[in-house]
Structures are given as structure tokens and as C-alpha cells.
Design brief:
- There is one protein chain.
- By secondary structure, the chain is mainly alpha-helical.
- It has one domain: Monooxygenase.
- The chain is 77% helix and 0% strand.
- The protein is built from 4 helices and no strands.
- It has helices spanning 3-16, 20-29, 37-57, 60-88.
- α1 packs parallel to α4, α2 packs parallel to α4 (60-88) and α3 runs antiparallel to α4 (60-88).
- It is elongated, with a radius of gyration of 17 Å.
- This is MtN3 and saliva related transmembrane protein.
């Protein structure tokens, strides 16, 4: 295996799973306290562009790593919303 490919795989894995500790912490605490979903949403948005870029240049590894990263960031934002609603109650009344 080429050294360049090894570096790319390591870098892809590192950046892909960088948000995972925040997600795990939030799920274990069952709390959104201390989390900023904006960062995950911004990062996830740009990772979508990386998926497009990877497809345009024909790089399977760029596409796959970033699809996984988008999923991790999406789960982080979804968990934030879920726990935030649980912490503050359903402040929005049900439609009549």
C-alpha cells in the first residue's frame, strides 16, 4: 500500500470520527448541556461538499469517509435536539 494512501486513510478516519466523543458524551449523560449543535451542523454542511468533491474527482475514500462523517454529525445534531427538548419539556403546545 502506498504511503500517500495510508496517510489519507488515517487523516480520513481522524476527521470523520472527531465528533464522535461529543455524541457519546451527550448520549451517556442524556443531556445537551455544554454542546453547540451549530458546530456539528456547519461541519456536516461542509462535509457534504467534500462528498460532492470526492465524487467529482473520483475518490472513493473521500466520498466514503465524508458520508460517514455527515452521518456522525447528523446524529450529533439530532441527539442535541432530542435531549434539549427533553430537558426543557415540550414548550411548543400541540396544535388544536
Amino acid at each position: 500500500m502506498d504511503f500517500t494512501i495510508i496517510i489519507g486513510l488515517i487523516a480520513g478516519e481522524g476527521t470523520t470520527f472527531a465528533a464522535l466523543p461529543d455524541l457519546i458524551t451527550m448520549v451517556r449523560r442524556r443531556s445537551s448541556r455544554g454542546m453547540n449543535p451549530r458546530m456539528a451542523a456547519i461541519t456536516g454542511s461542509f462535509q457534504v461538499l467534500w462528498v460532492v468533491y470526492g465524487a467529482l474527482i473520483g475518490s472513493t475514500s473521500v466520498v466514503l469517509w465524508n458520508i460517514i462523517a455527515v452521518l456522525v454529525n447528523s446524529f450529533t445534531v439530532a441527539a442535541f435536539v432530542f435531549f434539549r427538548r427533553a430537558e426543557h419539556g415540550r414548550s411548543t403546545p400541540a396544535p388544536a
